Amino acid sequence: MFSILRRLTTSLPPLMDPLNSSHRLLALTQHLRLYKPPSSSWDDDDDSEVGFAESQTTIAKDPETFRPRRAAVLICLFEGDGGDLRVVLTKRSSGLSTHSGEVSLPGGKTEEGDKDDGDTATREAKEEIGLDPKLVNVVTVLEPFLSKHLLRVVPVIGVLNDKEAFKPSPNPSEVEAVFDAPLEMFIKDENRRAEEREWMGNKYLIHFFDYETNNKKYMIWGLTAGILIRAASVVYQRPPPFLEQNPSHKVHFTSSY
Q1: Predicted structure pTM score
Q2: Over the stretch 208-250, which tens digit does the pLDDT of each residue have?
Q3: Distance of CA 208 to the CA centre of its chain
Q4: CB 156 within 8 A of CB 121
Q5: CB-side exposure of 194: number of CA atoms within 13 Å?
Q6: Which end of the chain is more exposed for a tag (fewer CB within 10 A), N or C?
Q7: Contacts of 146 by beta carbon, 8 Å cutoff, 6+ apart
Q8: H-type helices in 104-221, by residue range?
Q9: CA atoms within 13 A of residue 133's CA, in its CB half-sphere
Q10: C-alpha closest to that of 71 among 120, 21, 22, 2
Q11: How many CB atoms lie within 10 A of CB 162?
């Protein structure tokens, strides 16, 4: 099956014209709105070392004992100057007590008054990096992921309507740097390695992606890498060429369009 971007590439003019670019993003938005995360049998301090979908864990099978806190992260996509699809990422402040200096997606825990996961993700993005929610078109959510300390993290996919209007202003108490990376990188085997870890009696794979931009090197791993692997699989409608999780965790990639 052709990916969304490949189909759009064959049907739309080159990306040099901003108007054509906006048409392409509109088509991408329309496709993503049709995505439905896999159905599940459960009801509805952060740690980024697990990084697999909640339905792949045994603990999620018992809703009576499994009542995790909720959070949301924003997968903010935009079209780069070269026509590739890119995602906004942050490097956490080195002064934070947990996960200092790690790469993450903008986001945080749900607060009273948040209407939904999209509201949580965009509110946190504004607080962390100054991203005006009006610039983001929230189009879909992915299946929740679990952090090591049982925080249910909902990935929210949004499209940046006007990348020129977004002027990052990171909150220094939370964010050290704001950068972007190609989304397709996360379903390629380049600059990637994996390690096997154990959590709650289950073995799982943790992925590490090395990325360099503007003479700065970043390592994208754990929960953030797991979420971006899944997001890229959904957007490009193909699984990664590597094992996403151990065989005991059944990952079924299906198109939901």
Answers
A1: 0.80
A2: 999 999 999 999 999 999 999 999 999 999 999 999 876 554 4
A3: 15
A4: yes
A5: 21
A6: N
A7: 50, 52, 53, 54, 57, 60, 68, 152, 153
A8: 117-129
A9: 13
A10: 120
A11: 12
